[in-house]
């Protein structure tokens, strides 16, 4: 998928989602991230992180546990019609909330002093996020032979490996609950950006094709709904782990 195609997909998704909604969701997420990581007190930083996580988790659970089964009972035409309206909005909302949750969570852990010796762990975290996500994007979007995918993949892989090489010498074990959190966040990130997001792009490409196939739109949408529900369940485990890490028990 070329860079112009990607830009066209984003613009087209934004038009179908409602441009004000698409721009507003992304702008609010970026503004909240900037505020939380620069000027916010620890209390306000925690609020931004928790609320982003609540919105991310709640939306995934709603789609997977409530909306998904309802849509699953519809015929293909009706199911596809729902996903054609839903997907453009979730394509902006869920990645924004996921990114905001993760991007505020790590700095918050550093501010709270529960993430000592973070360098090598963040290097490994970056490696195990960036490389699988880019590989999955290349595979699911048929972009392995496109230099616009090859360059980010090369830069991301080499940069991650160099960071690991520079910091691995100071590697030390951390609190088990924090290590579990990093693993769970990695699973969520890879699944969200490597599976769910390409699925949404494939739905959009069907929507704008000369002859949209309702069965394909319905199948991908229902698969994404199930994966979203699974994400919500993993997020509940992550929340329990975070409570344990922050307060030392239940």
Task: Characterize the structure shown.
The chain crosses the membrane at residues 20-42, 48-71, 92-112, 118-139, 151-171, 177-197. Keywords: Membrane, Transmembrane, Transmembrane helix. This protein is mainly alpha-helical. The chain has one domain (3-116, 174-247). Helix content is 85%, strand content 0%. It is built from 8 helices and no strands. It has helices spanning 3-17, 19-38, 42-72, 76-112, 118-140, 147-167, 176-207, 214-247. α5 runs antiparallel to α6. The longest helix has 37 residues, at 76-112.
Keywords:
transmembrane; membrane; mainly alpha; transmembrane helix; 250 residues
Please report the number of helical segments: 8
Order of helices and strands: HHHHHHHH
Name the beta content range: under 5%
Please outline the major beta sheet: none
- Shape by Cα distribution: globular
**The number of domains:** 1
Classify the helix fraction into a percent range. over 70%
Q: What is the gyration radius calculated from CA atoms?
A: 19 Å
C-alpha end-to-end distance: 47 Å
Task: Summarize this structure briefly.
The chain crosses the membrane at residues 20-42, 48-71, 92-112, 118-139, 151-171, 177-197. With 250 residues, the chain is mainly alpha-helical.
Provide the fold topology:
Elements: H1 3-17, H2 19-38, H3 42-72, H4 76-112, H5 118-140, H6 147-167, H7 176-207, H8 214-247
Helix pairs in contact: 1-2, 1-4, 2-3, 2-4, 3-4, 3-8, 4-7, 4-8, 5-6, 5-7, 7-8
């Amino acid at each position: 998928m070329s860079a112009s195609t990607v830009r066209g997909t984003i613009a087209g998704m934004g038009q179908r989602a409602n441009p004000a909604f698409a721009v507003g969701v992304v702008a609010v997420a970026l503004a909240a991230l900037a505020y939380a990581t620069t000027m916010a007190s620890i209390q306000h930083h925690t609020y931004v992180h928790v609320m982003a996580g609540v919105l991310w988790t709640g939306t995934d659970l709603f789609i997977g546990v409530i909306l998904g089964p309802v849509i699953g009972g519809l015929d293909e035409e009706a199911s596809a019609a729902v996903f054609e309206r839903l997907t453009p909005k979730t394509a902006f909302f869920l990645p924004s909330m996921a990114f905001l949750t993760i991007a505020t969570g790590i700095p918050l852990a550093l501010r709270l002093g529960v993430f000592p010796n973070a360098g090598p762990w963040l290097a490994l975290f970056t490696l195990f996020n960036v490389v699988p996500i880019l590989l999955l994007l290349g595979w699911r979007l048929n972009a392995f032979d496109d230099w616009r995918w090859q360059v980010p993949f090369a830069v991301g892989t080499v940069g991650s490996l160099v960071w690991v090489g520079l910091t691995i010498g100071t590697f030390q074990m951390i609190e088990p609950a924090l290590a579990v959190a990093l693993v769970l966040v990695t699973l969520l990130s890879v699944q969200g950006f490597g599976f769910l997001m390409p699925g949404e792009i494939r739905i959009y490409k069907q929507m704008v094709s000369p002859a949209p196939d309702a069965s394909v739109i319905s199948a991908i949408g229902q698969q994404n709904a199930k994966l979203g529900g699974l994400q919500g369940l993993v997020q509940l485990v992550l929340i329990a782990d975070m409570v344990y890490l922050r307060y030392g028990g239940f």
